[in-house]
From TrEMBL:
GO molecular function, one term: ATP binding
Keyword Ribonucleoprotein: no
Full protein name: ABC transporter domain-containing protein
SUPFAM superfamilies linked to this entry: P-loop containing nucleoside triphosphate hydrolases (SSF52540)
SMART domains: AAA
Pfam family, one: ABC_tran
Organism listed in the record: Spirilliplanes yamanashiensis
PROSITE patterns: ABC_TRANSPORTER_2
Domain of life: Bacteria
Domain ABC transporter: residue ranges: 70-264
InterPro entries in alphabetical order: AAA+_ATPase, ABC_transporter-like_ATP-bd, P-loop_NTPase
């Protein structure tokens, strides 16, 4: 089965189950381009993948009303003459998940970088409360450090002793179906494995606010579902999570959706 045939079959299976197919199929196509693997290897049969996806979207978790961890007001940003963000507002409380969605180039990653303090807005304010965990869409890892060395380095900055940081990193890695013990330096890791490393580093030390920029790029089907299961666990633990994503089908499993599609 070719990639196009698999994507067409997936769209049909999702429509049969009452799921909006466009965003999900686009997300799957992006994963396949990134991995370069056949769709049956990455995701399995279209019907089985559709069933797993629908099952992952059932039973929404109850909403929480904890303290505000992120408050964005009137954020505006331009690059030269190109306006990327205009008057964006977003509030996320402890125990909530917010999804930032929209077409490529609409400013999703820019907004998240502003929220993380890595870029300054032209106008508007960003207030954060508590410790911050950050997972970039790309980069973020050191070329000449092993995963265990990443864990101990980042863990030290979050008050974790070396053995505790290593053990915490390995436990978190197991949650996305990855065993980092004995893994090579960052420069030798695949793109998907680097993203798993970034995701684990973002969660070390149990930060109060987590900003995740399409952190599942290059993940296979199982790891992708594991990622969302981890997000729900973080929410249940009282963390505030902001995820840049194209997967609109997950909208009923998040507390806030900020659509930047019309802002580019």
């Amino acid at each position: 089965m070719s990639t196009d045939e698999w994507l067409h079959a997936l769209a049909a299976e999702l429509r049969r189950r009452g799921v909006e197919a466009g965003a999900v199929v686009a997300e799957a196509a992006s994963h396949l381009r990134e991995s370069g693997e056949p769709p049956l290897t990455v995701f399995g049969a279209p019907a089985a993948y559709a069933d797993a996806l629908v099952d992952s979207l059932r039973t929404p978790r109850p909403r929480s009303h904890g303290p505000v961890r992120l408050d964005v007001r009137g954020v505006t940003k331009s690059y030269g003459r190109r306006r990327v963000l205009t008057g964006v507002d977003l509030t996320v409380r402890a125990g909530e998940v917010a999804a930032i969605v929209g077409a490529n180039g609409c400013g999703k990653s820019t907004l998240l970088r502003i929220c993380a303090g890595l870029e300054a807005p032209d106008a508007g304010t960003v207030h954060r409360s508590g410790a911050l965990g950050w997972c970039p869409q790309a980069g973020g890892t050191a070329e000449f450090l092993t995963p265990d060395e990443h864990f101990t380095l980042v863990g030290a900055g979050r008050g974790l002793a070396r053995p505790a940081a290593r053990d915490a990193g390995r436990r978190a890695a197991a949650g996305v179906d990855w065993d980092p013990a004995g893994a090579p330096q960052g420069r030798h890791l695949s793109g998907g494995t680097r993203q798993k490393l970034n995701l684990v580093l973002a969660g070390l030390g149990e930060p109060d606010l987590m900003l995740l920029d399409e952190p599942y790029q290059g993940f296979d089907h199982g790891s992708y579902l594991d990622f969302w299961a981890q997000v729900w666990d973080w929410r249940d633990a009282g963390r505030a999570v902001v995820v840049v994503t194209h997967l609109l089908a997950a909208a009923d499993r998040v507390d806030t959706v900020l659509d930047l599609g019309g802002r580019a």
